[in-house]
Amino acid sequence: MGGFFGVVSKSDCVNDLFFGTDYHSHMGTRRGGLAVHNADGFTRFIHDITNTQFRSKFETDITRMHGASGIGALSDHEDQPLIIASHLGVYAIVTVGKVLNAEALTQQAFHERSVHFAELGANEINSTELVAMLINQGATFLEGIRLAQKTIEGSCSLLLLTQDGIYAARDRLGRTPVIIGEKTDAHAVTLETCAFPNLGYEVNKILGPGEIVRFTADSIETIQPPGQRLQICSFLWVYYGYPASSYEGINAEQVRNRCGACLARCDTVKPDYVASVPDSGTGHALGYANAAKIPYCRPFVKYTPTWPRSFMPQDQSVRDLVARMKLIPIKDMIQGQCLLFCEDSIVRGTQLKDTIQRLYDCGAREVHMRPACPPLIYGCKFLNFSRSRSEQDLAARKAITELEGHAEHCELKEYTIADSPKYVAMVERIRLRLGLTSLKYQTLDDLVAAIGLPKEQLCTFCWDGVE
Ligand code: SF4
After folding, report:
1. Domains along the sequence of the chain with CATH
2. What is the average pLDDT value for the chain, to the nearest integer?
3. Which residues have CB under 6 Å of ligand 1?
4. Whose CA is nearest to atom 5 of ligand 1?
5. Whether the model pTM is above 0.85
6. Ligand 1 center to 248 CA (angstroms)
7. Using H for helix, E for strand and C for coil, what is the string for the chain?
8. pLDDT in tens, 40-77
9. Among residues 262, 263, 293, 362, which is most buried (max CB within 10 A)?
């Protein structure tokens, strides 16, 4: 997936930039970068953060960075910020999203023979460089960004750091959020609003879909108004957004609490305790426990001192091992108990199966599971965060393949309809595979109600395949 942060101040901005970018560490796991601008031009550092926290990699660099404006990013794939010299001037750029038509755009650029790409990573064109190539085709930054928004299939939100301030542009359909904050003598831009409170920023403006602004330390100018159609990613609230963040002014933790409460209202099971697999299920489980008036407990605790990150490493077998080592069961709280777990979602189910088995090994009497969103049936094609997950590896797709007897050309629609015969059969397959006493998913209607935006403003493609 990835995240970004930018700031323009009347004094040195490096401290805000460093911590503001760091607050996106849950969004990107492989590459981190910072760029600042001052009277001497641009200074930039990029590091591999696969096995190290962002902060520890940049602690020394920031002592060599000085400037009143800067941008930073964490990403799963590409190096950024990139410093670009063009007819528009020198600028730095970061992007978040996924360029689906990257190959076609690359071939078109090669056909014109005047373009080359220099930032290859694992033999792939750096998609941020590709976006910069599109922007450079405009007569102005505004025209270039508009061209990029029009041309890119998939999604792309971006920041440009120029000598005249920062341009911030939200994805054409607003799949990812872009939010402007303000404090005395400075403005900042973020994807995650959890970056603001401790740095003293208040939310000033939530960009609408496709909106473009240019801001300095003391002004914010909308240079392209928002478009009509919003398709913000619902999964931000369910899982990968930080609990302290708000999108479209709606806080993620409160949505998770509402999801849990809704699951409780629809349930008939009376467990001894409600629990979660830390940390992503915690907000949902607390909502469930409070609504059902059943105690919340922590039969698993996470060993955070040395395992602070949730996504790394990229290799699946090592990731499974890390996931196991992170979670420590408390047998005294599990033995003989009927436990109900809330999870954000069930993706592949492999780690979850192991976790459930460990509960039985510790003497659990019953284990019930309540995912806070419907079965994931389609892989995300609009953002990059799930690139490592193959659609056919999804627990729901595996169940469908078993039921249909083949993986190709399955008619999936009925599996997306809660309580249809195919849906019920699919959920039962998943329950059996995970070894659960019961499994009941949140419905899409209830998830949408918990978020609180109209369905047509939300991307729900993961669950219903609707674009
Ligand atoms: S497909 Fe899923 S993860 Fe991707 S943008 Fe839509 S809701 Fe978000």
Report:
1. 3-230 (3.60.20.10), 253-464 (3.40.50.2020)
2. 94
3. 175, 233-235, 380, 382-383, 459-462
4. 233
5. yes
6. 16
7. CCEEEEEEECCCCHHHHHHHHHCCCCCCCCEEEEEEEECCEEEEEEEECCCCCHHHHHCCHHHHCCCCEEEEEEECCCCCCEEEEECCEEEEEEEEEEECCHHHHHHHHHHCCCCCCCCCECCECCHHHHHHHHHCCCCCHHHHHHHHHHHCCEEEEEEEEECCEEEEECCCCCCCCCEEEEECCEEEEECCHHHCHHHCCEEEEECCCCCEEEECCCCEEEEECCCCCCCEECHHHHHHCCCCCEECCEEHHHHHHHHHHHHHHCCCCCCCEEEECCCCCHHHHHHHHHHHCCCECCCEEECCCCCCCCCCCCCHHHHHHHHHHHEEECHHHHCCCEEEEEECCCCCCHHHHHHHHHHHHCCCCEEEEEECCCCCCCCCCCCCCCCCCCHHHCHHHHHHHHHHCCCCCCCCHHHHCCCCHHHHHHHHHHHHHHCCCEECCCCHHHHHHHHCCCHHHEECHHHHCCC
8. 999 999 999 987 889 999 999 999 999 999 999 999 88
9. 263
